[in-house]
Amino acid sequence: MQRFTAKKSVKNISVSLWRRCLSSTSQTAAVKDSDEFLAKFPSFDYVPPPYSGPSADEILSKRKEFLSPSMSCLYRKPLNIVDGKMQYLFDESGRRYLDAFAGIAVVNCGHCHPDVVEPVIEQIKRLQHPTVLYLNHAIADFSEALAAKLPGDLKVVFFTNSGTEANELALMMARLYTGCQDIVSVRNGYHGNAAGTMGATAQSMWKFNVVQTGVHHAVNPDPYRGVFGADGEKYARDVQDLIQYGTTGHIAGFICEAIQGVGGIVELAPGYLSATYDIVKKAGGLFIADEVQSGFARTGNFWGFEAHNVVPDIVTMAKGIGNGFPLGAVVTTPEIASVLTRRCYFNTFGGNAVSTTAGLAVLKVIEKEKLQENAAMVGSYLKEKLIQLKEKHEIIGDVRGRGLMLGVELVTDRKLKTPATAETLHIMDQMKELGVLVGKGGYFGNVFRITPPLCFTKDDADYLVEAMDYSMSKM
């Protein structure tokens, strides 16, 4: 790892951290020279073919010229990822990295899993896009298999291309079905970046200055930073107050993530969802479970809402549904689904034969390889290891999450819970040099988002924790 110099931008580095890095050459050189540590890297028998494409600098130059200026990269020196296999990624030089982010909780089965890739190749060779106006078995087979994974009367599937599209459709259906316009969502939640979902999203950094109406944001039931601690029923009373004083007393619906992903892997306070569910139903609203990040076995349950003993009226999903293919879905009851027959509803690429083939393959891999059980087992093991690490490093304020959807929040002061935003970026860079990739999130950008492929092993978990420990020790 290169030493910081005066020419480097300090935009994302605190003054104190910057000075520490400048004052100690050995401190920043330690990771680069840690051959003994790197020898602990779990073995893997795949070697990617040589890469002959453009360099990272060339790609970055093209991105700056031709792609949206809103696009950003992780790390001070962006990675050029050119290959992937299961829980590992490879850069242009062939260096291997342990992927603990999975393309933002997407690649649940593992990168380029052969049992996903091969059916897709066969489908794309035979027929790529027939349109749902014709009959084709791919969309029918997947919708049947997907509906079988949901409880009760949740058996009508609408396919989309993303989580944003799925949530947009769910919000519209709730409003049509109830005849009400008011939606309640939770502060710090993220549901998408289109008109309706941006209104439901409750973080200013994701909300543009456009009209967003009809959404009320409830107090976040965050056990770590929330005003009522871990008292779920007190947070639920705020939902009751919002409905009682901010609406007609009747609402269209309530949308919520079982674990907030973009918001920093925030678990809901115990008892919150079941109490809120009763309040929402009494107000005539529908309960919408946003499973875009927590679904498809990631939390150790197949769906995140299963840990809260509630059955939603509508479930939205994306990300892990296709293991990287553009695919999303809304699943609801036949009664609620019928509202879309009042007019014409159509999605050109929703239910595309190639994407639904991938979706069906994902379900088969999760079952065949017992990935749900692995997520629960390895996730519990990793969480315990991270909790132990918290006892060693004061910078760790909280460890949370379920299964392989875990968060580690960093603070400079445990009592004040001061976000360690700059330190988070620095430790991420150090971990990258040790071959470990994690994401970050939370309103302050101070939470490690650990959402690896569900084939993650205990050896992988051990190495991740050791890399984090090593990186924090070099602060």
Layout of strands and helices, then pairs:
Elements: H1 15-23, H2 25-29, H3 35-38, H4 56-66, E1 81-85, E2 88-91, E3 96-99, H5 102-105, H6 114-126, H7 137-147, E4 156-160, H8 163-178, E5 183-186, H9 195-200, E6 215-218, H10 232-246, E7 253-257, E8 259-260, E9 266-267, H11 272-282, E10 286-290, E11 314-317, E12 328-332, H12 334-337, H13 353-368, H14 371-392, E13 396-402, E14 405-413, E15 418-419, H15 421-433, E16 436-437, E17 439-441, E18 447-450, H16 458-473
Parallel strand pairs: 3-16, 5-6, 5-7, 7-10, 10-11
Antiparallel strand pairs: 1-2, 2-3, 4-12, 8-9, 11-12, 13-14, 14-15, 14-18, 17-18
Helix pairs in contact: 6-13, 7-13, 10-11, 14-16, 15-16
Summarize the structure.
The chain has 475 residues and is of the alpha/beta class.
Instruction: Identify the CATH homologous superfamily of the largest domain.
Output: Type I PLP-dependent aspartate aminotransferase-like (Major domain)
Please tell me how large the radius of gyration is: 23 Å
* CATH fold field value of the largest domain: Aspartate Aminotransferase, domain 2
Fraction of residues in helices? 25-40%
Shape: globular
Compute the average pLDDT.
93
Largest sheet: 7 strands, mixed
CATH domain class name of the largest domain:
Alpha Beta
Q: What portion of residues belong to β-strands?
A: 15-25%
Q: What is the number of helices?
A: 16
Number of domains: 2
Low-confidence regions: 1-28
Q: State the end-to-end distance.
A: 14 Å
Structural class of the helices, strands and pairings?
Answer: alpha/beta
What is the CATH architecture descriptor of the largest domain? Answer: 3-Layer(aba) Sandwich
Cofactor: pyridoxal 5'-phosphate
Protein name: alanine--glyoxylate transaminase
InterPro entries: Aminotrans_3 (IPR005814), Aminotrans_3_PPA_site (IPR049704), PyrdxlP-dep_Trfase (IPR015424), PyrdxlP-dep_Trfase_major (IPR015421), PyrdxlP-dep_Trfase_small (IPR015422)
Family: Belongs to the class-III pyridoxal-phosphate-dependent aminotransferase family.
